[in-house]
Amino acid sequence: MVIRVFVASSSGSVAIKKRQQDVVRFLEANRIEFEEVDITMSEEKRQWMYKNIPEDRQPAQGNPLPPQIFSDDRYCGDYDGFFESKESNTVFSFLGLKPTLASKESEP
User: Fold this and answer.
1) Is 91 exposed, middle or buried (0-12, 13-18, 19+ CB in 10 A)?
2) In what order do the strands lie in the sheet containing 34-38?
3) Angstrom distances, CA of residue 29 to CA of 25, 32, 38, 85, 97
4) CB burial class (10 A; 0-12, 13-18, 19+) of residue 65?
5) Is the C or the N end of the chain the one with fewer CB within 10 Å?
6) Degrees (nearest 5) of the Cα angle 6, 8, 9?
7) Can you list the domains of the chain with their CATH numbers?
């Protein structure tokens, strides 16, 4: 299972850059293996990301903004969903992974 984080390396938005960094740093700090997929230079990757986000999770206007998170081809969510799962200590469930011993999710 591969966690893929779709990012835009040349985003002009400080907010998007911070959100992308937040996701990547959290995954690195928790030693969760992931692949960063840059949609800036690849129309094919950008279109794949757009097509694989469920309709009910698409924004009302425009295209979904990075970061967008997938587990293999299963859509996990965007930054807001990631942030909520981080706050409630359920990131492993959000990512479709088994919780580690240090996680609240591993408690019975």
Assistant:
1) buried
2) 34-38, 3-7, 68-71, 74-78
3) 6, 8, 21, 16, 16
4) middle
5) C
6) 120
7) 1-93 (3.40.30.10)
Q: At residue 48, what is the residue type?
A: W
What is the distance between the alpha carbons of residues 74 and 57, in angstroms, rounded to a whole number?
A: 13
Residue 35: closest CA among 3, 1, 10, 8: 3
CA distance 37 to 7: 6
Provide the token pair at 51. 């097509």
Which pTM value belongs to this model?
0.90
Structure tokens at 56: 């009910």
Q: What contacts 73, CB < 8 A, 6 or more positions away?
A: 52
Helices (H) and strands (E) in the chain, counts: 4, 4
3-state secondary structure of 31: coil
